[in-house]
Design brief:
2 copies of one chain form a homodimer.
Chain A lengths: L7 H29 L4 H13 L2 E2 H7 L4 H13 L3 E5 L7 E5 L1 H9 L6 H8 L3 H31 L4
Antiparallel strand pairs in A: 1-3, 2-3
Helix pairs in contact in A: 1-2, 2-5, 3-4
Chain A binds a DNA duplex through helix 2 and helix 4.
DNA sequence: TGCGAATATTTCGCATACGAAATAACCGTG
DNA sequence: CACGGTTATTTCGTATGCGAAATATTCGCA
């Protein structure tokens, strides 16, 4: 044991801090890059998603960019205004709205080289492969624990909705 | 030119996905809990911070909760309206606004058992200690890489601000 | 001393972001 | 067919969240 072993609480706080840093900074930078092309962060996410997957219903789109439907309605409104995407009603189920890129949106999507969270991705790619795999393994186990805690909490809420 | 193991990209994508999941879900849950006490997420962060550190200037407060001054001005406005905090001008430097808890805010801060990102913290705490340390080590190295990339990018921008 | 640069905060306009309620369309069962 | 429950989306009100410009104050230095 050569290096002084850090206190456990400090390690945990450090992990939380670092995750917050990585998330917020990557997001900020992506937003900045998007702005060079006249887009906002979420707008970049949307055109990249649509370019990859073709047309999507509003709800599957909002699921993929992790936002509520009501949020995405607004984002799409502004993108329609900018002529980046189109709204079209599905033939089979007229409740569903399909969003797809206009030629202008398509062109822009392919022109912008940045993926969401790009800097984070690149930094990960430069890690030793072994470290990346280890990181993935541990993070995955944390995620499983969080999911469990969430399920538990939701079960509690469901069982006592009156209190 | 080595034959890339097909798994590697998936590992990287998985890491990004998981980080996004952990951050957004923890945030969502904290917000939900705060709502039980009539607070928003950022408001909870603010009273916890002030309870720990005493009065803070607006800019040091915004630095700590990772938001812009202009954002925190609004948050504090609404908290003053709710009589959770006070604004007072510093004696020594009248540009500085010091924010501190009212008794009502103080009481609420001590009454709420939740820290920001609570679920994430708890899940981390249940990890094997060795895994936590490994996680910290690798994340820290990712963070260092991100910082480096950001510095580099900012240097470029500073050198060619006219293009 | 005085004045221009620097610093701290606020204001403004806009874009998320969310949850609850409203709206529209579908579905199954009677 | 009709109608009650479900599903997809939008609307509404409010709270972040940001960057640029405005405002207020302090500081450096000639």
């Amino acid at each position: 044991m050569t290096a002084t072993r850090p206190k456990h609480k400090e390690v945990l706080d450090g992990i939380v801090e670092t995750i917050i840093y990585l998330y917020t900074e990557s997001r900020r930078l992506t937003k900045e890059r998007a702005r060079d092309f006249g887009l906002t962060g979420p707008q970049l996410a949307v055109i990249k998603m649509l370019d990859q997957l073709g047309s999507l219903s509003l709800s599957s789109l909002s699921e993929r960019i992790r936002a509520q439907n009501s949020t995405v309605t607004g984002i799409v409104d502004r993108m329609v205004r900018e002529e980046l995407v189109l709204r079209e009603r599905s033939e089979h189920d007229r409740r569903i709205v399909l969003i797809r890129l206009t030629p202008k949106g398509q062109k822009l999507a392919r022109q912008i080289p940045v993926e969401p969270m790009e800097i984070f991705r690149q930094s990960l790619a430069s890690l030793p492969r072994k470290d990346a795999e280890e990181l993935f393994r541990v993070l995955d186990s944390v995620q499983a624990r969080v999911r469990l805690a969430i399920d538990e909490r939701e079960r509690e809420v469901r069982e006592e909705p009156w209190t």
